[in-house]
Amino acid sequence: MRTFLSAILTLVAMAAIVVAFPSLWVKERLVDPEGFVATVTPMAQDQRVKDYLAGEISSAAEQQVTIPGASAVIEPAVRAYTGTDQFEADFVDVVSQQHAWLFDPPPPGGDNTVMELDITDMVNRVIATTGISARVSGPIVVPLNRGGSGLEAGRYHEVGQQITALAYGSLVIAVAAGILALLIARRRGTVLAWLGIGVVASAVFAWAVGLFFAERAKQEVEGAENAGREVAELIIDGAVGDLHHLALIVGAVGVGVVIVGFGARVLARR
Fold it and tell me: Where do transmembrane segments lie in this chain (predicted)?
């Protein structure tokens, strides 16, 4: 009976482990606003991101400042601005807008089918560095997709809540079932090895989730203009890269647990 109960609990723990890791990553790195910002902030150093936003800021500033020859001053100022720490801080604000648009409840009324990023603060900051006495009231928005693309405001609001519940629930089940299985088991080394296999399977599943997420997310930004789509895909690839990096670490830990489990089994036999 002990062996049977331990086997059932081990299978339950393995299934929960497989679900827990990728769902916890999604919750912590995508659904959670601070985690999302931490995931995408390093991308502010990518030259493609700088070039894209520099072009948008320059175009907006030149439209707002009607002084002749202003472009000769604005463009160098924009290039200098994208190399500062302030640009990274403003980039965090921009991607926070993107996260809020996707995960917060959609606002009532208005067009909820086009994701727009407000770069008014960026434009004003650049104008201030040029010495031109002008300030833009805004909003100056940059569309990242087109209406009818299927991507709408609040698209992932309910999904985010469901993933959060799944992450916490699977983690509790995995820990509880795993501990009970080890306590009840007659051969704890074997149970530990199987739990390690569950951790490895979780890493493999997370890797597959990353590939699926990347393909699905890129399909939803296909309606963006070329430069905007390239930046969106860069952010997607960066997030998936973070997941795959952690999956390799988790997989290595799982292999270590399997080795320890088999080692304990050999020592118990001796």
Answer: 165-185, 192-214, 246-268
* CA gap 208, 213 in Å, rounded: 9
Instruction: Indicate whether 200 and 187 sit together in one domain.
Output: yes
Cβ atoms within 10 A of the Cβ of 219, count? 12
pTM strictly above 0.70: yes
**Residue with the two structure tokens 């606002």:** 107
Bond from prior residue into 139 cis (ω within 30 degrees of 0) = yes
pLDDT bracket for residue 186 (50, 70, 90):
confident
Residue found by looking up tokens 């995960």 in the block:
103
For tokens 């998936």, the residue is 240
Q: Is residue 149 part of a domain?
A: no
Q: What is the mean pLDDT of residues 175-203?
A: 94
Give 192 or 117, the one with higher predicted confidence: 192
Residue 149, pLDDT > 60, answer no
Q: How far apart are CA 26 and CA 32, in angstroms?
A: 8
- 27-60 pLDDT, tens digit per residue, is 999 999 999 888 888 888 888 888 888 888 888 8
Query: Which residues neighbour 186 within 8 Å (Cβ) at sequence distance 6 or greater?
Result: 2, 3, 6
The tally of CA atoms less than 13 A away on the side-chain side of residue 211 is 6
Structural domains of the chain, count = 2
On the 0-12 / 13-18 / 19+ scale of CB atoms within 10 A, 140 is: buried
- Closest-CA residue to 193 (of 111, 259, 146): 259
Q: Which tokens is 113 given?
A: 């089918």
Q: Give the structural domain span for 185.
A: 2-29+154-269
Token pair, residue 170, equals 């699977």
